[in-house]
């Protein structure tokens, strides 16, 4: 081992039935029906983007431009902007149109070695539109070589038709849960606990309903202020608390005790020009697992590069390249409840792998705007972005 990455040089890996069957020194590799010489490329687990809103219609570049020309958030909102503009566009889009808009964003991630993707709803805010978003997410996982995990984020914002009636809207969110689960569309349940979102009490109603249905929870927590969301999601043994810029010592402690992952989202921090960084020293000291994700969304993080996400985390918050790589593989898998399946190179796990033309692992977080991904292996099948081959014994 060198520098803590746990690398094995001059190594080989065998795949059988889509899973890792053996790995070790190349000189000791078992005979195989077919081999691939990677020519000195580095092999890592496939990258995992564990927090995205990548299925949506339209974009908000007009608002981005307006802010830079001096418009305030209130002025943009009064003109019909903000999240409700995305809700209107997403509600108006057909399922096929929504899929067509989303696929290019997903493909950009896959070209950078991503093999697992979390996709949230939350731009429909009523049953049929939320279901349409989640159906599109499922379709992406059938059309492209990527494993998709879905999160129902009905408690994202209060829709315009129920403005000022947050409790009534939470009633509607609870009514959506069982039908969406019955359609096989929900892997986890998320919420936005914030002054401009939902209160801890309203969020807990969503969590209690999810728990009653056997669904794991996660939370947009402490992004803009400390609402105690981290303690709440930890109390429900949640998979993750995401953003956490305003996380308190009590929140850190609760997450550590519950084993809840902190998913850090530097894209939103950068795009919004925030100044309150997540309490990395406290999280490290407490042993809270640190994941990274793009938070791809049209309003606060229009980011479709997990490699750039790694660089941002290192340059803005002084994460190490080793932490960044773990945050997009091993820890990201844990944030999705998939640690037993993916995220590390171990016998028995899925053969979801990425091959890189790099000199050392730190290169993945070092370069800006350069993609060294040569190929990925998804479930044992080689994807070179030009052709698909099967590597199975």
Specify the oligomeric state.
Answer: single chain
Q: What pattern of helices and strands is seen along the backbone? A: EEEEHHHHEHEHEHEHEHEHHEHHHEHEEE
Low-confidence blocks of residues? 386-393
Fraction of residues in β-strands: 15-25%
Mean pLDDT equals 94
The strand order across the widest sheet is 4-5-6-7-8-9-10-11
Question: Helix- and strand-based class?
Answer: alpha/beta
Largest sheet: 8 strands, parallel
The number of distinct helices, counting runs of at least 4 residues, comes to 15
Task: Provide structural commentary.
37% of the residues lie in helices and 19% in strands. It has 393 residues and is an alpha/beta fold. Helix 8 (229-235) links the parallel strand 8 and strand 9. Helix 4 crosses helix 5, helix 6 (166-182) packs parallel to helix 7 (200-212) and helix 8 runs parallel beside helix 9 (249-258). The longest helix is centred in the middle third of the chain and has 17 residues, at 127-143.
Write the layout of secondary structure elements.
Blueprint: E1 11-16, E2 19-25, E3 42-45, E4 47-49, H1 61-68, H2 73-78, H3 83-92, H4 95-110, E5 114-120, H5 127-143, E6 147-155, H6 166-182, E7 188-193, H7 200-212, E8 218-221, H8 229-235, E9 240-243, H9 249-258, E10 261-264, H10 266-271, H11 280-286, E11 290-292, H12 306-317, H13 321-327, H14 330-335, E12 353-356, H15 363-366, E13 373-378, E14 381-383, E15 388-390
Parallel strand pairs: 4-5, 5-6, 6-7, 7-8, 8-9, 9-10, 10-11
Antiparallel strand pairs: 1-2, 3-12, 12-13, 13-14, 14-15
Helix pairs in contact: 4-5, 6-7, 8-9
């Amino acid at each position: 081992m060198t520098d803590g990455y746990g690398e094995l040089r001059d190594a080989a890996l065998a795949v059988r039935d889509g899973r890792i069957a053996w790995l070790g020194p190349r000189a000791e590799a078992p005979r195989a029906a077919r081999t691939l010489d990677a020519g000195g490329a580095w092999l890592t687990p496939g990258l995992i983007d564990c927090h995205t809103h990548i299925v949506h219609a339209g974009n908000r570049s007009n608002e981005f431009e307006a802010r830079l020309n001096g418009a305030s958030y209130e002025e943009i909102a009064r003109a019909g902007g903000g999240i409700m503009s995305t809700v209107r566009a997403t509600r108006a889009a057909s399922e096929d149109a929504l899929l067509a808009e989303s696929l290019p964003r997903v493909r950009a991630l896959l070209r950078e070695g991503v093999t697992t993707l979390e996709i949230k709803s939350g731009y429909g805010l009523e049953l049929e539109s939320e279901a349409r978003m989640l159906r599109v997410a499922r379709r992406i996982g059938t059309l492209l070589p990527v494993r998709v995990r879905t999160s129902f984020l009905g408690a994202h914002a209060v829709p315009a038709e129920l403005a000022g009636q947050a409790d009534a809207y939470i009633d509607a969110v609870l009514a959506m849960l069982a039908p969406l689960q019955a359609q096989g569309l929900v892997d986890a349940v998320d919420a936005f606990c914030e002054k401009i979102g939902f209160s801890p009490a309203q969020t807990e109603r969503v969590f209690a309903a999810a728990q009653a249905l056997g669904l794991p929870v996660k939370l947009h927590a402490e992004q803009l202020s400390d609402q105690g969301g981290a303690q709440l999601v930890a109390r429900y043994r949640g998979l993750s608390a995401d953003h956490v810029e305003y996380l308190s010592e009590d929140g850190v402690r609760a997450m550590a005790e519950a084993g809840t992952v902190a998913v850090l989202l530097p894209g939103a921090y950068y795009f919004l020009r925030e100044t309150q960084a997540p309490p990395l020293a406290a999280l490290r000291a407490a042993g809270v697992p640190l994941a990274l994700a793009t938070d791809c969304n049209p309003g606060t993080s229009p980011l479709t590069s997990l490699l750039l996400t790694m660089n941002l985390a290192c340059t803005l918050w002084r994460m190490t390249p080793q932490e960044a790589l773990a945050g997009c593989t091993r820890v990201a898998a844990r944030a999705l409840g998939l640690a037993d399946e993916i995220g590390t190179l171990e016998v028995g796990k899925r053969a979801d792998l990425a091959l890189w033309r790099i000199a050392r692992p730190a290169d993945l977080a070092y370069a800006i705007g350069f993609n060294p991904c040569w190929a990925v292996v998804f479930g044992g099948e080689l994807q070179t972005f030009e052709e698909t081959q099967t590597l199975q014994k």
